[in-house]
Every structure is written in structure tokens, then in C-alpha cells.
Amino acid sequence: MIELRDVGFEYVTTGRRTRAIQEVSLRVPRGASVAFVGASGCGKSTLLKLIAGLVTATRGVVTVDGRPVVAPLKNVGMAFQNPVLLPWRSVLDNLYLPLEVLRENGDRRALDRAQWRKRALDLLRTVGLAGAESKQPRELSGGMRQRVSLCRALIHEPELLLLDEPFAALDAFTREEMWELHQALRAEQRFTSVLVTHDLREAVFVADTIYVMASDPGRIGHVHEIALPRPRVQADVYGHAATELIGLMRAEIRPPRAPA
User: Fold this and answer.
1) Is 219 helix (H, G, I), strand (E, B) or coil?
2) What is the pLDDT of residues 203-233, one digit of tens each?
3) Which of 22, 162, 237, 252 can pair with 217 through a Cys bridge, CB separation 3.0 to 4.6 Å?
4) In CATH, what number is assigned to the domain containing residue 174?
């Protein structure tokens, strides 16, 4: 589904070139779920933008579905830490937004208006928000707004879902509910998922493969395949094997300092 071959990215500020990403190569199979973890500033979100086509690699090649990414992708859903719901629209009308964009671009996935409503209501029911379609964003809790954001990202049934710390602002209990929700939606819609997160337990629950990023410049430092069975339950990420892996990744991200 996704392939990066010797990908690098540089940006220029006040005449100075900074290398943000250096020689990243990886492949993500169709239907897989992967996560990028690492310290702040290591290039996790930049990699997500490269895959989405929001920025263009300065070297190497990014391909999705075998085609080079040279512009923003169309068949993709995205969710961020801030749900960014339009405050003047109801929940239902916020969900319609991607379909409206598709319709304006003549995309066949836009379907007709009656089918929009059925698909939106089905998604809201799946995420436990049946009956909330007429509410305004200000009437929802943070967890509810993030559920709406996830529905909006999936309403056009994208083949690829890109997540940039979408659950970071939620309380611990709601965050764990969102991990399970992501797992259920992926089993149902069979999309490929790429997650950027600072939460190592979240990465272990959500991902099949975890890429630990190193910094200055950003690059893949370590790769871990997650052997936990699916569907996963919360106890899996608090067991011995997961806890040991999380400790290892924490040391890879911030190696222990030598004694003075």
C-alpha cells in the first residue's frame, strides 16, 4: 500500500537548510496498521505529511498504491489531535464535509444525499453516538468530538487512514476506548492505518509494526513487529511481553545517560 525508498526531506528557514528526514525506506502492506514513535522533533509528523502528499520529498520516492505521491492524496482519511469540527455545523453536517468535497470534484464515492445520511448515521451508531447527529460541537465532550472526527475521516471509506496523535488530549479511559474503536473500525472497513503517537502502549495496541524514530536528522532507528493476537484487549498491553517491549522502546528513544 505504502512504500518509501530512500526518502529525505529538507526545509528552509531564514536562508538555512535543515534536514528533517534522512534516507527512510519502509513498506506498509495493504490492510496493515503501523505506528511511528519517537521524541518530539524527530520527524514523525513530517513522515505522515510526506505519505499524505501534503509536502514533497526532496529526495527519494514515496508511493501509495504503486503511484508516486506528487500531490495531496484523494483516497485518504486524516484525524489530528485537535478534531477541528466546524462550530456552525451540526455533527451530521460535519460528517458530510468530505462527501461534499468529493461531489464538487466529481468523485463517484460522493453517492447521493440519501446515502450520505445512512452512512453517517451508521458510523455514529458504531462509535456510540447514535442520536447525536443534530448536536453542535460545543455540546460534545472532548472524547465525543474525537469520535466525530474519526467518523468524518472514514465516511468516504478511504483505503488509507492517517492519524497524527488523535487521542493525545483525551483522558486515559477515553483514550483506551478509542484504541478499541480504531481496532473495530479497521476490522470492519479494512483500511490501512498509519499512526503517529507519543504513547507507547497506544502504539502496541494499535499497530502491527512500530517504527522507532531517531533524531537529528529524523530516521528509522528501530523496528518492532508486534506479536500480540487480534482482536486485542487492554490487558494485552499491560502484560509482561508488552511491558518489556515498551521499556525497550523507551530506552531506544531516550538512551540512559552514562554516570558522571
Assistant:
1) strand
2) 999 999 999 999 888 999 999 999 999 999 9
3) 22
4) 3.40.50.300
How many helices (H) and strands (E) are present in the chain, helices listed first?
7, 10
Q: Which residues pair with 211 in a beta bridge?
A: 36, 223
What letters, b where the CB count within 10 A reaches 16 and e where it falls short, cover 240-252?
eebeebbeebeeb
- The pTM (predicted TM-score) of the whole model is 0.90
Inform me whether the pLDDT recorded for 257 exceeds 70: no
Contact 92, 157 (CB under 8 A): no
Is 150 part of a structural domain of the chain? yes
DSSP, collapsed to helix, strand or coil, labels residue 5 as strand
Say yes or no to pLDDT of 3 above 70.
Answer: yes
Report the pLDDT averaged over residues 32-52: 93
Tens of pLDDT, residues 116-149 = 888 889 889 888 899 999 999 999 998 899 899 9
What b/e readout covers 63-82, taking b as 16+ CB neighbours within 10 angstroms? ebeeeebeeebeebbbbbbe
Q: How far apart are CA 253 and CA 183, in angstroms?
A: 26
Q: Cα(198)–Cα(96) distance, rounded to whole angstroms?
A: 30
Number of independent structural domains in the chain: 2
Residues 188 and 245 in one domain: yes
Decide if 80 is inside a domain: no
Cell 529524523, located at residue: 218
* Strand pairing report for 76-80 and 33-37: unpaired
Report yes or no on 6 lying in a domain.
yes
Beta strands in 65-123 (DSSP E): 67-68, 76-80
For cell 534536514, what's the residue? 19
Q: Distance (Å, rounded) from C-alpha 161 to C-alpha 183?
A: 12
